[in-house]
Task: structure prediction
Amino acid sequence: MSTTDPAFQAVADQPPSGRLRHFVDIVRWRAERYADQVAFTFLAPADGQSETISYSELDERARRIAIALAEQGERGDRVLVVQTPGLDYIASLLGCFYSGRVAVPVYPLDLFRLRSSLPRLEAITRDARARTVLTSVEALGGSANELKVLGSLWGCGAEAVIRTDRLTDTAASDYRPERIHSGDVAILQYTSGTTADPRGVVLRHRHLLANAQQIYSAYHVPDAVCVFWLPPYHDMGLVGGLMLPLYAGRPSVLMSPTSFVQDPAAWLRAISDYRGTTTASPNFGFELCLRKVHDETLESLDLSSLRVTISGAEPIRAATMRRFTERFGASGFCPSAFTPAYGMAEATLAITGKPRGCLPRSVRFAAEPLRTNPPTAVAANGTTVDAAGGTTHARTRSVEIVSCGKPLDRTEVIVVDPETRERLGAGMVGEIWVRSPAVAGEYWQRRELSESTFGVRPGSDPAGDSDEGFLRTGDLGFLHDGELFVSGRLKDCLIIAGRNHFAHEIEAAVQAVDPALKVDGGIAFGIEPDSHSEPAMSEADDIAADEASAAGDVAAAGEQLVIVQELLRPKRVDVAELVRQIRMELVERFGLAVAAICFVPAGTLPRTSSGKLRRARCREEYLGGVYSPIFHWVAAHGARESNGAPAANSLVNLEVNSPANPPMNGTSTAGLSHSSGVVSSSASPSNDRSATFESGDRGAIERVVAASWCEVLELSAAEASQHFLDHGGHSLAALSLVSRIRDRLGITVDFETLMRAPRFGQLVDEVVRLVEAGDGELATPDRNGVSVSETAPAKRDDRLTASQQRFWLLDSLGMRQAFLHVELSLRLRGCADPERLLRRVAELPRRHPGLRLRIAVDDSGVPRQRISDELEIDVRRFDWRTVADEDQAIRLRELRRELTDEPLGLEQGPVMRAAWVQLAHDEAELSLIAHHAVCDGWSLRLLAEDLAADLADSPADETDEADEADEADEADEGSLGVA
Result:
């Protein structure tokens, strides 16, 4: 439908009459007066075809659903709305309102993650005591899963299922209106990440109407058209994408989140085609457009109609807004359209926002005082400026915070000391409290939690000073020039990789690993990458500390997970093994990569007088280096330290003319002898051209696996009890191991196989099972020494492993947390021949094909992996020998930030970049940044040390023959596995 079609035009450039007290009245009022006007347009994911619904059609479908609901249960019942994004979802939501039922919107089931999405649906069903389900076959994960899913829901208390795709043509005229009151519950809005402990925010009809009025008052523009891709199940997508357009009488163009992730340009094309004025996205949505919208697309886009582009729902990045404006300014995007905002489900949606028409604002503050002292602005030259205008020393580590604007109409925002509950003045950091008619009053069936969260009062406020108390947001921030700046989080909800995780769930999982981990004696908390995730170091640990501190000052979305845990009887446990078990438990149960694990003696952690752990204080003490750990492991450096000190820095000093460690890819050996449970290696099977194996020969299989195991881990013998991680295993080693086994045996073995069977004996059992199941045949070497199947040439499996699917999805969503980008800076001294080293760096992808991994979606929409033909990476070179020492550190900090912030992509690449900075005649810094899909921090460090070792060990007059030999050796490594 064209935007010039009269049916698409905005139906009324004014809000509804004040006598309309809820959305049932509003929708029916618009259906009577503007029957044929388009209310919503939904863009289909595949072919881009649109489906529209007018106000009269929407009213009719809602009435039919209401009639079906009236036949089940009674008024006030909770109804699960399990629908995919689309017009059926909107009609189902309104059908609940029309019938006087309480809508409980939930995400549809994920067919590929049924083991995790179904338990969440079950938990919400039990908590809400939902009696009815509104759904369709598609939303239940397909007909094959329908009976299983419905059986699970019935077991949780559901009594009836209404399939909106099978509703009979019930006469809508049979609908009998319910008497809806503004105080009736309209929606239970369940926050994400709460499988074990669901928390439903109780939103009444008056809350929905109040927030819609507030947003309309702040951001209404003439002839408005909304364009949204956000999930319609809560806050931003629900209120902004559905409720606000209904209130304002403006058409809304919708698409599914899946459509957006697959093709971010589709969102921008919809804005261009429909002349969208209002839209919204979390920060990662803008990053995704920057990464995946091609330059040739820009010429066809016209974004000049945009007036309000909300950025919220996760930390807002000034750098992202600047780059988006610069890139899409050529397509007409106006920088004043960017509207940073702050809100949450407990306040329905919006709390504050940048006033319309002005430019967004960001201020750089000194990082350290943001948690305990008045924030200190930082000037452009790096000096800090206090409230009195005085200056302190330069080179202050800082963080840029975007203003979330001013409170909306009838909204009061204050900052409170979280411990004393006293109001704090402007410019003081504390917990953000909110009072507004849109703030909910409770969590569903959670009296104690509700009383501690809603309706609270500052300590100095007399009871009865106002009819309403405040909402404790759990977020930290401050008011600066009348605007809200959010600086952190007080509550124990962590946002990692775009998902919410509750600290107590993580803590319980950790403490269940071993009895030595004290129950209720540990905390999990998040650290923004900007805050630098390592505790303070002593002088003895200082290795170029100033520069290393700067290296930690890198902007990245999301948080890093830290565990601080009290340990019982530390002398009786293997702390390194405990770390390994905790890491595996968190990965398997939550999909979380932990940044640091710190074991401390029992009784160390701060507690209140009632014995409760003081989370905020523990976090501060960890960052301040107060603790003397029993054992401290830091993932960023892949090192375990038992002396209480963290693995020093991300800046490594290497004397390149000194003896170095052996290369991580040791000389291949094979020809195997087997005795007493030990498989020893003496020569490589790929070089033993007389070897032949028969399918089903366990001994032959074991020798092949052992050869790969010993080659990768540089062991002389493989034993059944050996654990991959205990012998130096890391992501590149895992990639190499599974690829060698896969290529030599022709079976589908991946990273998950190794995680399920991390010990050598377990891995052999798993591989034997795969071979006997017909997943592949044993291989024999061809005349060139490359393993091939006896019955057919081995075909490289281009399907994604589960790990690759996760990395690809996160990459597609634009999430670039610390565990997706790995950075290492090396300070090199005595490098007499930098050109040879830089040539080696540039040729890393030639020697390690895994660094050429690409993942792209095929014509059927399935992501596939391949190895690209790009054999070199670009090494950016800078000569700062004439720059003063004090300025070099500042420049290095900014360069590291830029290098890490710049996207790395699995679809188009690159997955690795490097930079060389010449600081003096015999001193330089080399920075390596890689995507975690192909490299982890430890692997990156090993690559760097190998470069230095290679430079030190190779003669100065070496020829390119060695490079060619290296390439030939590595070419047989199946590099499509992923860490």
The chain has five domains: 20-38+55-198, 362-437+444-489, 500-643, 672-789, 802-971. The domain at 362-437+444-489 is CATH 2.30.38.10 (Luciferase; domain 3). The radius of gyration is 30 Å.
